[in-house]
Amino acid sequence: MITKNYDLLGEQLAESGLEMNIFGAIASIAGGIFGATQANKQNRQAQDNYEDQKEAAEEAAELQNEYNKEVFEADKQNYANNRRYEYETAVRQWKYNQSIQDYQYLQTVKQYGKSVENTKDQLSYNSLAARQAYEGEQAALNEIYTEDAFNRQDLLVNQLQGQGQAQTGQAGRSRTKALQSSLAEIGRNAAIMNASLTSSVKQTDRNLRDVTMRRYGADMQARAGMMLQPENLPDLLQPTQAPERIFVEPMEVLPQAIGAPRQQSVFAPLVNGLASAAPSLMNAFGPKPPATPTQLF
Description:
Blueprint: H1 4-169, H2 173-224, H3 267-285
Helix pairs in contact: 1-2, 1-3
């Protein structure tokens, strides 16, 4: 006879084991689904972070490239402005220096003209002074000639008077001796007068030569003091611009390399959950072992 209560207990125990296996399998599957959901959520968050970082790197590279381009254009403009300013300044300085050189040349020409005028005046003065000296010497010589003429006239008168006295005062040898003595005296006086006149003429010649030499020396000194004729200096070299600078555009900045996130496997938790649930399902729905003799009583 079979004990029903015992069978009912066995059935309850078997049913309880089945439920436990089913609950375990469901829990394993649910854990796998939850793990897959979490992995998918983390993958989406990592991908969003990756996209945000990539976009930020691209924006930073774009801003850096725009800044480098603005700096490059500003450098070119500043260089062009400075190059133009330096050239215009050099041209203004060149024109100013050229005007100063021209002004100095004109002033030198004026000074040279004044020097030539002064030299001409000095030469004219030297010529006038020499002429006056010549005339003075000639006048002095003329006075000597005049005085000599008067002295010779006096000597002639004295000679005639002496001859007359000699002829009337005595006769014979005494008169002849008196005439000879008178002629001898007249001859001496004439010789003295001739020598004096000759000496005066020679002195006048020496004085005239001295005047000539002094005029020559004064003329030489006047000409030596005259400025040399100025020559216009060559024009100053006009400034030229240096070769233009070669600019190299800045290298384009690339976005910072952002590593792609590692994606977690979504299927691994499901596979692990199913793998964990498989034994429980096998125990719950698989073939049951035959009843033992103890289960009949």
